[in-house]
Amino acid sequence: MTVLPLAREFTIRSSADHESACRVDQVQVVPWGGLSDADRLRWRQLRATQSELRTPFFSLAFFDAVQASRGDVLCAVMRSGGQVVGFLPFHRINHIAWPAGRFVNDAHNVVAHPDTTFDWCWLLKECQVKAYDFHSMVGSMSNIEQVSFQGITESFRADLGNDSKQFLAGLEKQHKTIRRQEQKSRKLAREIGPISIEIDCRDPSILQQMIAWKRDQYRRTNILDLFTPEWTRNMVDQLHRSNGPDTRGLLSVLRAGDTIVAAHFGMLENGLLHYWFPTYDTAFSRYSPGTALFKEIIRVADRHGIRCIDMGYGEQPYKRKQTDTITTVKHGCVTPSSVYRNMRAMRLAATNVIKQFPMKTQLKQVLRTVQPNAGISKLQ
């Protein structure tokens, strides 16, 4: 089994360690590849001033992978008095700015010191867009209240600390599903073969199997297939092939004997694992292999320096059962256009009505049958 290097601590620098509060007075939009080594160093320094930015979705490696797979990542470099004080990576599509990585990016915001201020309408004008549309904003946003529409969504995290086995014992006490998984796992071991986990599998063919299983799951559950565009598959492959000291794509595999029954691909950085694409072979669904995989990852977490598992936002029931911390993220837009804000609010209201519909599962199935690629614009 590959042993990952122990994670380094993600140190949050206080305002006293940083320059005093400043206001942005200049913005330059450059291609992602146009960032200099000094810019990338500055990115790391500014990122370390906010705990909300510790997720791998703010890592340079993530945006490098998105750029390598799409080629259209832009970055607004924000300055005050000539010094770089912030960054906003984005895609410019039809005069709208979208978070770089589109809908597969589970956490986004401006990378800046929390005391940095700027005028959003001016920033959008400098970026040559009429709005910034977001779906999972973390942290605070400067001077945004009057020009934005914002909704709130719950986000889930498992804080393992330094004793992941104790965390797992706590989950088993709280949730019958987690507790009873041991019976299913023992049955899996008896009937198929001994259970083992490979926490960091580097086999590209198994990555492709994981993607195939996930795509099948999307189809079965009438959810937008995030791997429909070629660029999302290339991005995951790029992250899997990366082997940097800080951020890495992590493919974890659960086997029963020699048979792979479940797999997960996520991103690991500084002890935080973003739980991104869990999936399993439906031939073994009676054993709940997805839950078995999650428990095995927790069991070996201490050994591999994993201190936190972030499951992000979403309504999947398993997230509540497998985590102990609930936070919130924002979705909406920032724009000087009241028409765009109202349109965004109406879209959310319509979505909420559908979610309350008594036969929403059947409705989703009909809609997905009629329009298999409904929602694909979120990934373009």
From TrEMBL:
Gene3D superfamilies found in the cross-reference section: 3.40.630.30
Coiled coil: none
InterPro entries registered for this protein in UniProt: Acyl_CoA_acyltransferase (IPR016181), BioF2-like_GNAT_dom (IPR038740)
Pfam families: Acetyltransf_6
Organism: Rubripirellula lacrimiformis
Name under which the protein is recorded: BioF2-like acetyltransferase domain-containing protein
Domain BioF2-like acetyltransferase: from-to ranges: 175-320
SUPFAM superfamilies linked to this entry: Acyl-CoA N-acyltransferases (Nat)
